[in-house]
Amino acid sequence: MTRLRRVGMVLALTLAAALVLPVASAAADASAASAVVRPAEPVIASAHRLATEAGHRVLAEGGNAFDAAIAVSATLGLVEPESSGIGGGGFFLLRRASDGHVVFVDARERAPMAATRDMFLDGDGQPIPERSINGPLAAGIPGLPAGLVHLAERYGRLPLERSLMPAIELAERGWPWGAKNQTMIGWRQKVLEADRGARALFLPGGKPPAVGTRMRNPDYARTLRRLARDGFDGFYRGETARRLVDGVRRAGGIWTLEDLAAYRVVEREPLRIAYRGAEIVTAPPPSSGGVALAQMLGILSAFDLAALGDAGRVHAIVEAMRRAYRDRAIYLGDPDHVEIPVALLTHPAYAAGLRAGISLERATPSDLLPGISAKPGSDQTTHFSIIDAEGNLAAVTQTVNLPFGNGIVIPGTGFVLNNEMDDFSVKPGVPNAFGLIGEDANAVAPGRRPLSSMTPTFVLAPDRVTVLGTPGGSRIISMVLLGILGVLDGHGAQDIAAAPRFHHQYLPDTLSAEPGALAPDVIEALKAKGHVVSQGERTWGNMQVASWWLGDGRVEAGFDPRWKSASVDEPSDGAIFR
Fold first, then answer.
1. Which of 52, 75, 223, 381 is catalytic?
2. Is the residue at 234 inside a domain?
3. Is 381 a catalytic residue?
4. Quick check: is 325 in a domain?
5. Owning domain of residue 125
6. Half-sphere exposure for 208 (CA within 13 Å, toward CB)
7. Helices (H) and strands (E) in the chain, counts
């Protein structure tokens, strides 16, 4: 163990007593007051209109936000197969209105028990191109189906079958292939062509479906019916499990029936961050997002961002991002397998130490920040946010990692498998598909959950509750940070979802910006401070925001316009969908 890690663990133990006490939340205090008005109506913000409709249908049938989350999740896995599904995993951040109980449900994928530290390296110890991305070895054991069962059994009000029924019926009768589906399949067509099951499902007639094509997936409906009937055993044992293991092993993979039967959802305590009079409730490890948010907000807490001017504000935020992403690479991994000094990394004193190295006049070159052993030589996930009429909250981010996961569909199952094994650090200092680097804390190991950037979050402010999150790979955390700042600056849900974005992730040492995110004079001022600015990149993310104003019960949904046709305005055929 290095001296830095020993010191960190000792200090973490010293600070733990202060951090285990509940953080006082202005919103929690407000929720207890008689002035708080319940939401005037339920609100769901998701990446697809049909998924949002599925959630509202379940609410109308007597379900709560957690039942609706099951419906939205299962429907997204059908109509947005490039982004998520029951072949992948997810994180569920939940808050129960009746008693204020907050929980983080970890349904992240796990490495098979036959996985090894060097399984993606050649004989010379170098990464084998694309082995952790495409093909059978790239897939971890799925966690999302277990997560849906867990929600129904622990937090929902309806039987699992009722909550899954909208997705089952839609798979059987059909839905229109969308513009987002078509765009994403173009990026991964060659990989899908290489697999028989994927070709049959996503390339009928040997080519991608045209926008508006009516798609059906009876195999997916049958898989969901087994899950609805038998719960956990309907996926992780029995027919579905046998199909998956036989198919993966025929393709050259290492899954076993024992891997599936041994999978378990884990309930974890969310991280709570006090910032500008609000409480931020967010994701703990194996998400890296909550720890990074605590560090970034801790650093920024001493700055008057508005007084710094546009360039100074961006500079301060970027320097906070740089330091948080650096610590992500060193310390974070699966908390069930490695010791993570969370108390140290999230403590205000640690943030103050990081802040002390920031100059408001000059950018800090990333290679001057110590700790990484080497430098590094599309973002598909989905998020939805729910507030029901009782005030229950659900922030859910789920994924198969890269578009269409590892490109494999086991015949008869109806869904693509994930490629989450790429989220491990296959070798210290070597970047994954999103350019993120890592150390041994996130190494491949049997049964371990790979580190994730997914960061479902609640912002509990004195006047308002906001649920938010986004896909975006390595950029998820920076987007959620900007979303939190937008909430606390008083912006509406739609403005927050649509706001232009910028990002820095330590390495590569580049400030990335969406088109129009930074004014020309701001870019020049940032360059003068020493930043390398990559401007005019393609847009990223697909943020979904739900807000509830406590004073009058008003609610608002914010849909990311970057995929507008797939979010709210995609044409529908009433005869098919109503």
1. 381
2. yes
3. yes
4. no
5. 48-89+105-266+400-443
6. 20
7. 21, 17
